[in-house]
Structures are given as C-alpha cells and as structure tokens.
C-alpha cells in the first residue's frame, strides 16, 4: 500500500472560529495507482493535498506513505522523505523567478546531493519538449511552458508520488490538455502514483480512482 | 469606492506585515527623534554652563563708559524680552585696617547679576535673592577666600577700597562667572551703587565697563549673528561684543565643534531613518504590485490606485511616526533619568516640538517622496500580470534615478536645515549619494560580474551566490542600505574619538593650580627651593624670551606702513596688531606631553654652531597657519634689538586642555640661553594650606613674582570639557545603537520577505540546514562586504570632515569599524537565522491554489 | 664646560649684532611694552622714531630698543648687564609700569631700579629715568607711593629724568590702540618728539 490514511482530521483557527477542514478521512491508494480528488471549492481538497505532501500536519489520525507514518515524523525527516519520494506540481507553477528553466529543474537534484545535475535535468527538459528553452527565465516563457518546466522539476528525481494541484487550472484548454497528457504520460512511464486535485470531471475520469470531497467529508 | 475603508481593511488583512512594517519604521524614526532629543538636551545643558562663565548670554565691554547709543545698537536687536545688567571691573590696591594692601579685582555689580551660573559662599550657602538685594543696602563686600588670607582679615572685618570702608559679609568658595578679564588677583564683589563712594572711578582710571544681557530662548546661531551685526554696527575698535561662547577663545572653539558634531549626529540620524524608511517602503510596494493589478483589472483608474497607495504610505508613515514620537517621549526622559546616576552633571532631557514635527514630516512627506519612484511604476503595471504570472518589470536605472530626485531634494533640504549650513548639508548629502553609488558599483561587481556560483560546489553557498546575482536590484538595494548604515553609524564614533582626544584633560593631580610668571633667571634657584620645601614638584618651568619677528625668509615682516588706522578694516587692523605684537619665544629640548609634532620633525638636539647651520624652530600649527609660515621658512627675530635667525623644521599641536603654558615659537636649545629672559612656571594642584604658604613665601622673598590662582577657572573649564567629552561619547553610542536598529530592521524585513522562497524550497525537499545555510550565506556575504566597504568609506569621510570642520584633528580608530563589522555580520546572521527558523516552522499551504 | 658653551653662544649673538662701528653713539632704552612698540611696526615704535629724530642732530646716534612686553623692574639689572657689551653712552630706563599694575610693593620696585642705576653709573652711562604713573583705580595711597619712587631715585642718584613717558598721549583715545593702554603710531611719534626734546641737550 503506497498511501494509507486512517481516521484523519484537520482543523485550524481562522480568526476566532475553528474550521474543520477535513473530518475523519480514511483512504488507501495502491502502488502505481492514479487518483483524482474532486470536489467544490472549500471542500478541503487543498488541505488534503498539503497533508499528503507533508507540508502540514493532521490534527488527529495518521498518514502512511510507503508504510512510513509521515504524520509522526520530525520536520527534518518529512523533508528528507519528500525529497526522495514526492514531487509536486502547482497550479501557479511556482518556478523560482530568478532561475533559468534548467536551474529550476536542477534544484531537486542538487538538494539530493547530485553534484552534476545538468545532464539529467536537460534530459527531463527534453522530455517535456523544452530543451531549447533551458537558459530562459520564467518570465520569458509562456504559461504552458512554465508548467512543463515545473513538471520536469517535480519528476526529475523520479519520485514515487506525484502530487498535482489543478495543473491545468491556469492554462487555456488546449495547452491544459497537452500538459495533462504529459503528466499522465510521465506518471505512467515512471510508475508514479499521481494524486490529482481537480474540478474537471473529465480529467478525474482519466484516473484509476476518484474520491469526492464535500465539506471536509470523503464520499 | 471608500478608500479609507479599503486601506484599513487591507492593512488589517495583512496584519502581520503591517505590524512588522510599522515596528521597523517607527524604530528607525525613534532613533532619529531620540538622537535629536538627546542632542538638544546635551547642547542646552553644556551651553548653560558656558553661559554661567559669562553669567549672561551676550555682553558689551569697553575700557570706558559705554554710551547709550552703543547700548541701543544691541538692545534694538532683541525682539522679545530681555534683562540687562551693568557692571564695572577694575584692579585696585585694597587695604586692611593695618594698611597692608594687596592687588584685588573689584567687581561692582547690580543685584540681578549673574543671570546664569551660581556663587557658592562658605558653609554651602548659595546666592539667593535676599543675598543679592542685601549687597547694595550697605557698604558690603563678598570676597574670594584668597582675599581673607592675603589681607589677614575675616568675615565681619572691614577693608578699604579706594576712600571707603567695606564690611566683609561673605566669603566665596565657588563662582561660576570668571568674567572677561584675566584674573590677575582675587576678586571682591561690591554693589555698583556703592562704587561711586570709593572714588576709584574717574577720568584716568582703567576699568572695564560691561553691559550684559539675558535673552531667554535665543538659539546660539542667532546670538552669533547678533554679535556679528553689532560688531559691524558699533564701529569702534575699543568696544568688545561677545556672547557667552566667545568669552574664552578655546571654549568658543570647542563649543562650535560640539555644535558641528551634534549637527552631524542629527544628520546621521536623519539619513539613517531615511535609509530605513526607504528600504522598507521599497519592499512594501514590490510586494503590492499584484494587488494593484487586481484593482486595475477590476476597473479602478490608475490615478485612483495611485491615491489609494499614496494614502496607505501616509497612514503607515503617520502611524509609525506617532508611535516613534510616543516611544521617544518615554525613552528620552526615561533614559535621562537612568543615566542621571551615571552623569557627572544634571541634564534636563526633553524633546522639543521641532524635533517631533521633523519626525512626523520624515515619516509622512519623506516616506511619500521615497516611495515616489516605486509609485511611478504603477503606471507600468498592466493587469495582464495576473494572467501571465509575470512580475512587473522594473524601469531600469535611469528611471529610478530620475524619480528619486524629489526624495533626494527633500533630504538635502532637511540636511541644510538641520546643520544650519548650506555647505555642510550639501557636503553631507553629496558624500551620502557618492558613497551610495560606490556601494552599488561594488555590489554589482562582486555579486554579479564574477559568476562565482558556477565554480562553487557547496550547495548552500552556490544557491546563495546565484540568488545574489539573479536578484540584482534587491541585492544592490540591501547592500547600499547596509553599507550606508555602517558608514553612518561609524562616522560619529570616528569623529568623536578624534575630538575626545583633544578634549581629554590630564589627571586631576596634574592640572595646574598656580600659574607663576616673571621669575627672573637669578630667582629660579630660590623659587625652586621654596617649592621643594613644601614637597611640591614644579609641573613646568619654561624660559620666556620676548622677541619681535622682523623678517620671514629674509623679507621684512612689517606689514603696517604707518597708515592711519581708519583706512583699515577692523579685521585688517586686528591682523596688523597681531603681526606687530612681540612674541614669547622659548626653548625646550623635548616636547611636553600636551604637544605633538604633526608635520615635519622635532629638534635634532642641542644646537651646534658650525658657522653654517641655522637654529631649528618649531611652531604651533594654528600660529603657523595664521602667519602663513611653512616648514623650511626662515624667521628672523629681534631680541632687544639683537637679531637671531631660525628655520622652521616642525609644526606642533598643543592640547590646550592641559592648561600648561605653551609657546607658539620654540627654539632648539643652545640658542636662546643667554638672551634676557624670565621664567614662567606652573604648580600642580595641592591643598589649600600648602598653596597659601607657597604664595606667602614667594610674596615675601621674591616680591616681583606674580602668581595667578588658576584652579577655579581650570576646574570650571575642565568640568565643561568633561561634559562635552561625555556628550560626544553618549551621542556616538546612541548613533551606534540607532544604526544597528536600522540594520536590524533591514535584515529582518529582508529575511521575512523570503518566506515564499523558503516554502518552495521546502516543498522541493531541500533540507532545513541547506535552506538556512543558503540565507545565512546570502545575507552574511552582503552584510560582510557592505559593512567592510561602509566602514572603510567612513574612515575616509571622517578624515574629510575632520579636516574640513575640525581643523584636521583626526585620530585613527580601528576599534569601531571592527566592532561594527563583527556586530553587523552577527546581527544580520542572527536575524536571518531567526526569521528563517520562523518561516521553516510554518507548514506552508500557501503554495497551493485557493 | 658649561661656561665655555655659553661663551660660544654669546659670541654668536654678538656677531649677530648689526655692524658695530665704534664711533657710534649708542642710546639704550630698557623698557616694557611701550618701548617694544606693542602692536605697531618696529619702525613706528618711539625708539625707532627717536633715532630718526636725533639723527638730525647727530648722524652717528643709534638707538637700541630693549623693550620687552610685560617686563618688570626685576629684570632691569640683568638686562642692562647684558647690553653693556654694546657699550651704550646713554640709558633710558623706562620700567616700573607693570610693577605698579601688578600691585608689586613700591619698595621692591625702587630697589630693583636702584640696582640698575648703580650698575649704569659704574659704567659711566648717562641715565634718564622715565617717570611712571598709576591709573586712579589703584587708589590714592598706592598711586602716591608709586609715583614717589621715581622722584626719590632721581634726587638720590642725581640723574636726569623724563618726567612722564606718556605725556600728551596717555588716556587719549585717538593716540592709543583699541585696548586704550598702548599708544598707536601717532602716539609713538608724539612720545619720540617729547623724548627727543629732552635728550637733544646731551648730544
């Protein structure tokens, strides 16, 4: 079992009121399985995603990724685990604005201690069809290109889990489709578990498993 | 739309940012206001001491009656209320009832004198209104203690001044007013009303008539202006016009230096706060560009957006300056109360209204102008940034420079206003801008030109260097801010060190108490034995040879061609008299410890006449400057008609606070020994009894020798010097603190603004130590190089300022620059580390949509 | 040894004297700031003007200005002894004013001047003693005692006198510097004329 969530809840304070973002979630994802999380805005999709990415801690319950309970790890352990096992693609791309496409892709490799990451990074840029754009800065590229760089960056370390947060949400339909194709292709080729957060039912249907969130409850 | 509501909502929404921002800005402004508050308080306190020496603000004196017209010249200058007091000072032989008489300074005063300062009588009694009033009610005298001893009289006895007997009512232990004439003899105060009966004041008498004034709340510069104008208007060379500051020439010099120094600290504080404000607002607006785009996309006119953010600046600035004022109102008197215990003198710590207005205007108008270049960028913001996620591009260097002209103009004007001098204000602003450019160039060169990051293997360092290179504008802005901050905070201690060196007075035991002159050569042995019998060591015994300078480089030195005085301006007249005055030469084989050769060299030893050599001379540097003499010049003197030639080999400075007799012209030993001469000597401080015994036996056995009891005046002046030195130290410490506060707020803000990057790196799995190391490297490097450069520039600038304002008094001080270098790096690293740790703790979800 | 060294320096100083022509008639004025010409150029001081004045009568006269500001009668003897080397024929002794201003006892001033007079007499020098006056503010008693020493010395030693050096100058604003004490150029020229008219008879 690659992902196992048991009785997990998450609440946080907003002003003076407590918001119960997720309530008693139980979820399992098998190896190489792709899963879509769908639901209306405010249903807790993003919260679930950040908990899966180890970017936040649950209020109660546990999250096991590859049989390791990340909800009980120390910060440092979570980061190390993430570095090796998780790649994230954001809706807003979040490329480092002051780094070139290639340098952005190099980042995760450098973090893992790779002294000569350029070759592999270039290979991945080539994968997403942007080897010619290697020396360009994010502001010199289109949105679709930026997202492809972000995909290359998220997958260059060949993580087991790829988290994607509305990857096509900021793109036009045509580009969006191309980007999604690319994500599915890479996930499949590398046998990654793709966890996709989306509004789009058609996209969700391309995943092997779908879960629906409403008001913090899993259906 | 309701701007105010929107602004408040936005500020509230970004509560954390708003609080941090206001905190940082108000800290910077507090630094300015507190510094200015301290400056004003110290200045006022020290000045009031100086007023005590004259007993008034300003005065007119002449060796004759001062006419009503002359008085009116002065009185017409005072716009508001003033008080005046008339007094007469003269020397007279005052006798006791057994007809023993001694030279006494008789000072006849009115009951309102002195306006400032105090007189302390025996048994700790202080001058009171009742005592003042009683002086004129009868023939009463208050006498200095020395008088009692010299005339063998006690309180209640009568002394004869001129034709009249006066009863001694009080003996004076301490008197803040030394007056304007030299105190050759101890003083007796009588009432001006009673002076007539003595018959001493009549044609053929030599007496100083003075009219002194109290003009409350007149700034020192204004007093000087009044003095200069009256000096011009009363075109009579025999009338002296002086303020309390120029009673003593050295005091005047020191006070004007103190004034310049404190003016500088104000400038430093101003620029420090401008720097902090500028940096903070700059980053504030950078982070706002997206929100502005949103508003524009929603249909808001650019002009309205402009107004909206302008108002935000004003509100933030206003809030910050109000907090700063509040803080200063607590800090300044509070710190005053705390330091009162440590202070050698009481200081009334208050903040004047103009400082508060200044603080407010820097916080609002200053902030606005500083933000103007960034606000101008609003014009370039296109709503498309929202869709493309591209950052608004900066308009480049030239545009930035042009739009920052109003801000520079504003601070330039403030600098001129604060320093009260166009030259100093402009110079300071100029230095500031030039240093900024220099820093920018260096930052650009170091971090951007060498691509160091390509050759570095260590990940955190590599990232740090790459970041610095890629974020050029931010790097340079940060570099300039820290560099200029360091420059400013170093400048004041550097100058302070130089000034304090001159102010430092010798240990109390070495300060002279008796000044003795006209010791004949043949009297030296008996003088020495009198002193050594009392176990006192002579501090200094110097030969004094009177000479006239007749030629420089074999060209006759006589300037006056007998032209009538009326054809010369008063300045020319004074200069001519100075040049034609005889000079006191001396000889000494070694420098005394208050002297320092600053140019050329000291003497090569005893003069050996080989028929070709010319004896060596060293000159006091200011004297040399006044007579335009340089090393290598020859000077021909005439000593009682005998010519003697010497060659200038060195220039000396004399630390006058040693209060030792000093000579403008010193000859090499072996030249003047046989010339007719007298000796001057100083004796160190000693107990009252010994002093009286020495005085008595000198008067008995060597009657021609004159003794001046200088302990009173020396004590008073060195007291003021100590206070000045203390003020200098305090101000420079405060400058250091204010500087660090600004560096702190820059580092803090900078680190906080990188939260997003930290979150992203974290999501990519970068380890905490790597992230921390990267930012520490980044800011550590900026801070190190910026501080290094800033401190180096500060050395140069302090040297420049010293030679411009303080007659080249400059002492190299390595401690402060080193301290700031270490301090600034440590502060930056510590702040960065703290901020990064905070950011790391937050499990960011902000990276995701919604 | 020490003496020897002093002698060599003495020689230097003597050789530094402007050309010594034995035929010259030397008039030595030992005095204070008045004689020194405090505040005026050397050539405007009364000794220089006196020389010009006297040269009209005798071309070989030379006036030696031994004025020294602030000096008192205490230095009169040693200064005269030093100047004896240039063999003055006439001496004007114009000291004592500073003694008075400093409140030194008139007895002491008188003794000091007497010592100098005795030395001059021994060397067969014609002596003129310049009389000094004290300002009124020093008190009548002191003023009188002080002024008396000059007339006493003159009659006791049977020497000549310049009754009051600052005659027609003292206390006159337009003839004095701003300090009201030291004569200006015009003042010095009046002093020179006064002194010349007294001394001329002896040339």
Question: Nutshell version of this structure?
Answer:
With 219 residues, chain A is α/β, with parallel strands linked by helices.
Description:
The complex is a heterotrimer of chains A (219), B (850) and C (203). Chain A is an alpha/beta fold and 219 residues long. Chain A has one domain (3-215): P-loop containing nucleotide triphosphate hydrolases (Rossmann fold). Chain A has helices at residues 45-52, 75-85, 101-111, 118-127, 143-155, 173-189, 201-205; strands at 3-14, 17-29, 35-38, 60-65, 68-69, 86-89, 161-165, 193-198, 209-214, 217-218. In chain A, strands 6-7-8-3-9-10 form a six-stranded mixed sheet, sandwiched between helices. Chain A has a four-stranded antiparallel sheet with strand order 2-1-4-5, with helices on one face. In chain A, strand 9 (209-214) and strand 10 (217-218) form a beta hairpin. Chain A is globular and about 50 Å long. Chain A starts with a strand and ends with a strand. Chain B has four domains: 1-55 and 252-420, no CATH class; 56-251, no CATH class; 443-505 and 712-850, no CATH class; 512-684, no CATH class. In chain B, strands 1, 2, 3, 4, 5, 6, 7, 8, 9 and 10 form a ten-stranded mixed sheet that branches. Mean pLDDT of chain B is 80; it is low at 386-393 and 560-565. By secondary structure, chain C is α/β, with parallel strands linked by helices. Chain C has a single domain (25-201), classed as SGNH hydrolase (Rossmann fold). Chain C contains eight helices and five strands, in the order H-E-H-H-E-H-E-H-H-E-H-E-H. A five-stranded parallel sheet of chain C has the order 2-1-3-4-5, with helices on both faces. Chains in contact: A-B, B-C. At the B-C interface, strand 2, strand 3, strand 11, strand 12 and helix 19 of B face helix 1, strand 2, helix 4, helix 6 and helix 7 of C.
The count of helical stretches of chain B stands at: 25
Beta-strand percent range of chain B: 15-25%
Number of strands of chain A: 10
Cα(first) to Cα(last) distance of chain A is 20 Å
Largest interface: B-C, 69 and 63 residues
CATH level-1 class of chain A: Alpha Beta
At the fourth level of CATH, the homologous superfamily of chain A is: P-loop containing nucleotide triphosphate hydrolases
Which stretches of chain B are poorly predicted, pLDDT < 50 over at least 5 residues? Answer: 386-393, 560-565
**N-to-C SSE string of chain A, H for helix and E for strand:** EEEHEEHEHHHEHEHEE
Tell me the structural class of chain A.
alpha/beta
Characterize the biggest β-sheet of chain B: 10 strands, mixed
Number of domains of chain A: 1
CATH topology type of chain A: Rossmann fold
Oligomer designation: heterotrimer
Low-confidence stretches of chain A: none
Total DSSP helices of chain A: 7
Q: What is the correct CATH architecture of chain A? A: 3-Layer(aba) Sandwich
**SS content category of chain B:** alpha+beta
- Arithmetic mean pLDDT of chain A: 86
Total strands of chain B: the figure is 21
């Amino acid at each position: 079992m690659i992902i196992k969530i048991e009785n997990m809840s998450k609440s946080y304070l907003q002003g003076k009121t407590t918001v119960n973002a997720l309530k008693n979630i139980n979820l399992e994802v098998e190896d190489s399985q792709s899963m879509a999380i769908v639901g209306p805005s405010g249903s807790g999709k993003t919260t679930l995603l950040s908990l899966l990415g180890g970017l936040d801690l649950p209020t109660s319950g546990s999250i096991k990724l590859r049989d390791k309970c990340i909800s009980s790890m120390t910060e440092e352990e979570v980061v190390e685990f993430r570095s090796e096992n998780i790649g994230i693609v954001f809706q807003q791309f979040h490329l480092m604005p002051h780094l070139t496409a290639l340098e952005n892709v190099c980042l995760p490799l450098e973090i893992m201690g790779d002294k000569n990451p350029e070759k592999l990074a270039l290979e991945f840029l080539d994968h997403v069809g942007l080897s010619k754009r290697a020396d360009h800065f994010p502001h010199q590229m289109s949105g679709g290109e930026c997202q492809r760089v972000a995909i290359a960056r998220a997958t260059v370390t060949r993580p087991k889990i790829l988290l994607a947060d509305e990857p096509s949400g900021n793109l036009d339909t045509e580009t969006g489709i191309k980007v999604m194709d690319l994500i599915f292709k890479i996930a499949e080729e590398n046998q990654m578990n793709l966890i996709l957060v989306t509004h789009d039912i058609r996209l969700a249907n391309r995943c092997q498993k779908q879960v629906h969130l409403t008001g913090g409850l899993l259906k | 739309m309701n701007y105010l509501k929107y602004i408040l909502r936005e500020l509230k929404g970004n509560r954390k940012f708003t609080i941090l921002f206001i905190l940082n800005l108000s800290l910077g402004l507090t630094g300015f206001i507190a510094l200015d508050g301290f400056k004003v308080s110290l200045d006022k306190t020290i000045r009031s001491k100086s007023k005590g020496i004259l007993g008034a603000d300003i005065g007119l004196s002449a060796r004759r009656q001062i006419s009503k017209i002359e008085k009116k010249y002065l009185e017409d200058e005072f716009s508001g209320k003033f008080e005046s007091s008339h007094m007469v000072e003269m020397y007279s032989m005052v006798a006791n009832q057994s007809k023993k008489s001694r030279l006494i300074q008789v000072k006849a005063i009115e009951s309102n004198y002195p306006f400032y300062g105090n007189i302390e009588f025996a048994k700790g009694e202080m001058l009171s209104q009742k005592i003042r009033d009683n002086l004129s009610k009868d023939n009463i005298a208050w006498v200095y203690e020395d008088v009692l001893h010299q005339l063998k009289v006690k309180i209640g006895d009568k002394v004869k001044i001129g034709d009249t007997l006066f009863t001694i009512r009080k003996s004076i232990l301490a008197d803040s007013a030394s007056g304007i004439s030299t105190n050759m003899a101890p003083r007796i105060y009588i009432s001006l009303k009673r002076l007539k009966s003595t018959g001493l004041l009549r044609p053929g008498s030599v007496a100083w008539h003075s009219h002194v004034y109290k003009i409350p709340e007149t700034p020192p510069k204004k007093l000087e202006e009044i003095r200069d104008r009256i000096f011009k208007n009363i075109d009579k060379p025999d009338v002296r016009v002086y303020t309390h500051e120029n009673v003593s020439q050295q005091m005047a010099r020191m006070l004007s230096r103190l004034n310049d120094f404190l003016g500088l600290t104000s400038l430093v504080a101003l620029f420090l706060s401008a720097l902090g404000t500028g940096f903070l607002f700059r980053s504030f607006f950078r982070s706002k560009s997206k929100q502005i785009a949103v508003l524009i996309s929603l249909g808001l006119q650019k002009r309205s957006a402009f107004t909206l953010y302008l108002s935000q600046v004003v509100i933030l600035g206003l809030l910050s300056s109000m907090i700063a004022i509040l803080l200063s109102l607590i800090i300044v008197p509070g710190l005053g109360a705390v330091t009162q215990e440590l202070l050698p003198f009481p200081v009334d710590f208050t903040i004047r209204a103009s400082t508060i207005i200044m603080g407010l205007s820097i916080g609002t108008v200053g902030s606005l102008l500083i933000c103007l270049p960034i606000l101008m960028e609003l014009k370039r913001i296109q709503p498309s940034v929202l869709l493309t996620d591209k950052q608004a591009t900066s308009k480049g260097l030239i545009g930035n420079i042009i739009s920052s002209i109003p801000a520079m103009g504003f601070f330039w004007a403030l600098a001129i206003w604060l320093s009260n001098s166009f030259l100093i204000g402009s110079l300071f602003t100029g230095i500031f801008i030039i240093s900024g450019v220099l820093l920018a160039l260096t930052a650009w060169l170091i971090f951007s030109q060498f691509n160091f990051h390509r050759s570095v293997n260590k990940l955190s360092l590599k990232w740090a260097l790459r970041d610095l290179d890629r974020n050029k504008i931010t790097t340079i802005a940060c570099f300039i801010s820290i560099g200029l901050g360091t420059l400013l905070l170093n400048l004041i201690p550097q100058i302070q060190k130089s000034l304090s060196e001159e102010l430092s007075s010798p240990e109390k035991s070495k300060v002279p108490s008796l000044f003795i002159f006209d010791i004949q050569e043949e009297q030296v042995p008996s003088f020495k034995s009198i002193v050594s019998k009392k176990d006192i060591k002579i501090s200094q015994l110097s030969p004094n040879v009177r000479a006239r300078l007749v030629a420089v480089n074999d060209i006759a030195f006589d300037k006056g061609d007998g032209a009538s005085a009326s054809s010369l301006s008063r300045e020319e007249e004074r200069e001519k008299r100075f040049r034609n005055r005889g000079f006191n030469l001396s000889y000494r084989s070694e420098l005394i410890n208050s002297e320092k050769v600053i140019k050329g060299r000291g003497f090569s030893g005893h003069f050996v006449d080989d028929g070709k050599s010319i004896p060596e001379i060293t000159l006091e540097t200011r004297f040399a400057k006044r007579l335009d003499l340089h090393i290598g010049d020859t000077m021909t003197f005439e000593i009682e008609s005998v010519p003697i030639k010497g060659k200038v080999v060195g220039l000396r400075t004399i630390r006058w606070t040693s209060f030792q007799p000093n000579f403008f012209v010193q000859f090499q030993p072996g030249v003047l020994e046989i010339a007719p001469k007298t000796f001057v000597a100083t004796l160190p401080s000693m107990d009252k009894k010994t002093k009286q015994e020495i005085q008595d036996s000198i008067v008995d056995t060597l009657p021609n020798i004159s003794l001046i009891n200088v302990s009173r005046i020396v004590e008073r002046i060195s007291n003021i010097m100590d206070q000045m030195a203390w003020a200098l130290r305090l101000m420079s410490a405060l400058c250091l603190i204010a500087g660090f506060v600004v560096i702190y707020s820059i580092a803090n803000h900078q680190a906080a603004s990188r939260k997003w990057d930290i979150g992203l790196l974290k999501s990519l799995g970068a380890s905490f130590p790597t992230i921390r190391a990267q930012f520490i490297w980044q800011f550590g490097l900026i801070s190190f190089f910026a501080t290094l450069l800033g401190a180096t520039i500060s050395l140069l600038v302090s040297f420049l300022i010293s030679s411009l304002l303080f007659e080249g008094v400059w002492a190299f001080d390595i401690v402060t620059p080193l301290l700031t270098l270490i301090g600034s790096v440590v502060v930056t690293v510590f702040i960065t580390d703290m901020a990064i740790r905070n950011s790391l703790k937050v499990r960011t979800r902000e990276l995701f949509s919604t | 040894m020490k003496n020897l060294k002093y002698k060599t320096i003495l020689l230097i100083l003597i050789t530094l004297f402007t050309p010594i022509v034995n035929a010259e008639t030397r008039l030595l004025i030992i005095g204070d700031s008045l004689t020194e010409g405090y505040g005026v150029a050397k050539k405007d001081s009364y000794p220089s003007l006196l020389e010009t004045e006297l040269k009209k009568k005798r071309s070989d006269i030379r006036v030696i200005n031994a004025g020294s500001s602030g000096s008192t009668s205490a230095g009169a003897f040693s200064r005269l002894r030093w100047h004896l080397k240039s063999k003055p024929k006439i001496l004007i002794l114009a000291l004592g004013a500073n003694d008075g201003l400093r409140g030194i006892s008139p007895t002491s001033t008188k003794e000091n001047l007497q010592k100098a007079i005795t030395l001059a007499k021994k060397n067969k020098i014609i002596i003129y003693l310049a009389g000094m006056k004290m300002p009124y503010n020093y008190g009548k008693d002191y003023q009188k005692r002080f002024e008396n020493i000059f007339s006493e010395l003159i009659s006791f030693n049977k020497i000549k006198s310049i009754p009051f050096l600052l005659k027609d100058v003292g206390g006159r604003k337009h003839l004095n510097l701003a300090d009201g004490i030291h004569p200006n150029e015009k003042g010095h020229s009046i002093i020179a004329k006064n002194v010349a008219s007294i001394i001329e008879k002896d040339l």
